[in-house]
Amino acid sequence: MRRAGTVPDAAWRRAVLAVAALAAAAAPAAFAQVGAAAAEPAPAASRWSAQAGQIDDALRAQWLVATTPRANWLAGALDAGDPAAQVARLAAARVAAPDDRLFLATLATACLAPVRPRPPECDAVDRLADWATRDVDNGVPSLLLADRARQRNNAAATLAYLDEAAARPRFDDYRSRGALVIWEDVRALPGPYDPAARALAASSYGLRWDAFAAGTIDGLCRDGQAPTDAILAACAAAGSALAQRAATWSLRIAGARLAERSAAPGPAQAAARQQLADVQRRAYDCAEGGNAIAAGLESADAGARARAVAQWEARVARDAREGEVAACR
Predict the structure, then answer these.
(1) What pLDDT was estimated at residue 25?
(2) Which of 62, 174, 178, 266 is least enclosed, having the fewest CB within 10 Å?
(3) How many CB atoms lie within 10 A of CB 158?
(4) Is the separation of the CB atoms in 199 and 15 below 8 Å?
(5) Is residue 223 classed exposed, middle or buried when 0-12, 13-18 and 19+ CB atoms within 10 A define those classes?
(6) pLDDT by residue (tens digit) across 67-112?
């Protein structure tokens, strides 16, 4: 269990800058690849680090004894120290609330981790297929199925799943929905914590929650994999669809990178390269909008902090409702 005061200040600053955890992860990458002249300055220490650490300890103690689907999901999603226990908690949430896509997605990705022995909850049901079946218009599980087929050297299935993904109308790993669930739990925690410290704790959880889907997609169609021309073309199409229709910036950037490295040389590759630059710039611009909120949360004035917390909360809720990208417009 982490002790008070150990929430990383750099994680806090990145999280507040982007508000949602994935935008926070995308912003530095976008900044680095659009020709920034200087590195970002080191973030100042947050005045709320100690309280955020206390909140972390209190929440973890609460999750140990809680049995609701939401508490099981929180415990499983945010504490990966024991993979078997993590999957057991996520599976309990999935069984208790079978129609919750956040629980479906988190369990499916947890079961893709290369853990030995495999948790029984992962062997009992193909959790990735379960997610794909219950979320049929979402292209993210199709892309993960394509990567699993690639790992099994099944070129025909890889191609089929890539084509399937390219045709899907949306791409969502539900991380924005998860960020709202985390915030609601942190906000409801009893105790005399400053609301700004609660925002710090919630956003730092978002940064520690592994962006599994985006990372896996970013590994598709690499040079060392020797993909066929047909698979390269399918990767380019699926990547472009992801870059245009994903709910989060990290997924859009992963899609744009996939399209750029898979596109045919010449005009197609130039267009894909421009698409990647555009997505990165938009992600960075969106993250920049959080600067005023970050400053307000660190203010010594209680009224300024209250206004910043209200803005932060509204943005987290809007991201969950509309998707991180759509909410930024």
Answers:
(1) 32
(2) 266
(3) 27
(4) no
(5) exposed
(6) 899 999 999 988 777 889 999 999 999 999 999 999 999 999 999 9
Whole-number pLDDT of residue 133: 96
Nearest-angstrom CA–CA distance, 115 and 182 = 26
Place of tokens 């915030």: 183
The answer to whether the beta carbons of residues 220 and 150 sit under 8 Å apart is yes
**Dist. CA 146–CA 159, nearest whole Å:** 7
Distance CA 163, CA 142 (A): 9
* 264-304 confidence digits (pLDDT tens): 999 999 999 999 999 999 999 999 888 899 899 999 999 99
Nearest to 312 by CA among 329, 288, 296: 296
Secondary structure in 3-state letters for the chain: CCCCCCCCHHHHHHHHHHCCHHHHHHHHHHHHCCCCCCCCCCCCCCCCHHHHHHHHHHHHHHHHHCCCHHHHHHHHHHCCCCHHHHHHHHHHHHHHCCCCHHHHHHHHHHCCCCCCCCCHHHHHCCHHHHHHHHCCCEHHHHHHHHHHHHHCCCHHHHHHHHHHHHCCCEECCCHHHHHHHHHHHHHHCCCCCCHHHHHHHHHHHHHHCCCHHHHHHCCCCCHHHCCCHHHHHHHHHHHHHHHHHECCHHHHHHHHHHHHHHCCCCHHHHHHHHHHHHHHHHHHHHHHCCHHHHHHHCCCCHHHHHHHHHHHHHHHHHHHHHCHHHHHC
- Find the farthest-apart pair of alpha carbons in the chain and give their distance in angstroms, rounded: 61
Query: Omega of the bond prior to 117 within 30 degrees of 0, cis?
Result: yes
Question: pLDDT digits over 214-250, tens only?
Answer: 999 988 998 777 789 999 999 999 999 999 999 999 9
